[in-house]
Design brief:
The protein is mainly beta. 11% of the residues lie in helices and 38% in strands. The protein contains 3 helices and 17 strands. The strands form 5 sheets. A 6-stranded mixed β-sheet has the order 5-7-9-15-16-11. Strands 6-8-10-14-17 form a 5-stranded mixed β-sheet. A hairpin with a 2-residue loop joins strand 1 and strand 2. The chain starts with a strand and ends with a strand. 36% of the residues are buried.
Length: 192
């Protein structure tokens, strides 16, 4: 038995191959791929609010989660861990407070034996050299440094998208809301 797609009657096999209702291409979710590219929140994520003190203390993020983080940059948020990098897992870190502390870092690490995909260009602020980074496939720690003025990332609405298209590896994209000129702060990935 088939079904209709527009004015066409298609078989069940053809229906499975259609992307009219979203769908997967080689096991990768099309909507999440588009959301990652464009920077919007895909459907199916759970939003969890975290206070500044919870961010300072650290936690492990759940699968398919948006973290609404009230981290203000007064202290380093140094123990944030991503969930397992399973195909189609999607995480967003979104600032709900201005992270404008003096010389502190937001540090997010991959789960054990997982990494960021290599050769990604990460940019914040004015795209000065300090605001750019190219990932290596051995990197497992993302560090975003903020400061008291001219941050390239960290104001309310700044966010970081993490998307897994390949098991064990995360794609990363930063969307920064700047403070002042956006020329300060930095983004780095390292192997720890």
């Amino acid at each position: 038995m088939g079904k209709r797609i527009g004015k066409y009657k298609v078989t069940n096999k053809e229906s499975e191959l259609s992307l009219v209702d979203g769908g997967n291409v080689n096991g990768v979710d099309l909507e999440r791929t588009l959301a990652f590219a464009a920077g919007y929140d895909p459907a199916g994520l759970t939003t969890t609010a975290k206070t500044d003190s919870q961010c300072d203390t650290g936690f492990t993020i759940g699968n398919n989660t948006i973290i609404d983080a009230a981290w203000d940059g007064g202290n380093a948020a140094s123990s944030i861990v991503l969930p397992a990098a399973t195909v189609n897992n999607y995480v967003i870190w979104r600032q709900t407070a201005a992270a404008d502390g003096a010389g502190v870092n937001l540090v997010i690490t991959c789960a054990s034996s997982e990494f960021f995909e290599g050769d990604q260009v990460l940019s914040t602020g004015t795209n000065l050299a300090v605001n750019n980074e190219i990932t290596a496939a051995t990197d497992n720690t993302l560090t975003v440094a903020v400061t008291t003025s001219n941050n390239g990332w960290g104001e309310v609405g700044s966010n970081i998208h993490f998307y897994c298209k390949k098991a064990g590896f995360w794609l990363v994209k930063l969307h920064g809301v700047t403070l002042g000129t956006g020329a300060a702060g930095s983004v780095n990935t390292t192997a720890v």
